[in-house]
Predict the structure.
Amino acid sequence: MAANLTPQYLKAEKEYRAAQTLEDKLAALKKMLSELPKHKGTEKIHAGLKTRLSELKVEMETRRKTGRAGVTFRVPKEGAAQIVLLGYPNVGKSQIVARLTGAHVEVADYPFTTRQPAPGMMRYEDIQIQLVDTPPLSARGMEPGMLDLIRAADAAMLVLDLSTDGDDIRPDPLEQADSTITRLSEVKIHLVGRVPDEREDPFVVYLKTLLVGSKVDVEGAQGRLAALEDLYRERYTLLGLSARDNIGLDGFGRRLFDFLELIRIYTKEPGKKPDLAAPYVLHRGATVLDLAERIHKDFAERMKFARIWGANAYSGQSVGRDHALNDKDVLELHI
């Protein structure tokens, strides 16, 4: 039986995934429980929420008694989306972030240079996308604090080193991909090419992931890239690049924008010109109502209709709440 989860529940679930403190997680869990529809199709979800709520209360009490907060990495979200870069040591993550964002990220030829998350903002036309370089994954494991950072991200880039057939630090690219995907799935973080519509376990995070083959300029890299394509082309989008030689970086902003399935919506007041400086960024498939809710809940409640200017509508066309929006539409809300 389908769960038929409501928008209110899904919003609370999103808040839970984005929470970076136990208190915020607890508040979001309680909201999820209150918004969860009560029927046979949600019994398993309800049981999972109650179990996690009990575990979280125990964790908070233990922390209160011991005074140990543990290690956590917090990177406040900025821009249209936050993408975490994941990968083994010395695969080129830091150089990619530095090239695409201009951020000062330590880049070196020796492994484990990155110890803390390092964010940078990549501009694409009139928006920015946040890229976060992270400490490396390896056979030794990962920094425990990374898990909350990964769970809260909007998407991931799994960076795979095409320059190696395997050494003491980095296995070959196929094993880099397989081991990272497997290791994270064991802690309920699933790196996927497309996020499923239905989810039975609210504590499983499905993170849309782009596979990036780095150092595509070195000898033998094209063959390793082809092997990755043969194995993963049905499940993931795969790109090859070289940050050092600026190969594959031209147009990368557009590729990420399309990968994230984003659209930009501009607004205007009646009788005035549209504000083209700061678009609202929504996901593809968003409606007039989605934009109204983003602006303010009062708009969503009181809106009567909207006028739209865009490629798929005649200028000033009157549309209702359920009208699907397209990239660069201009919207005028009437309440």
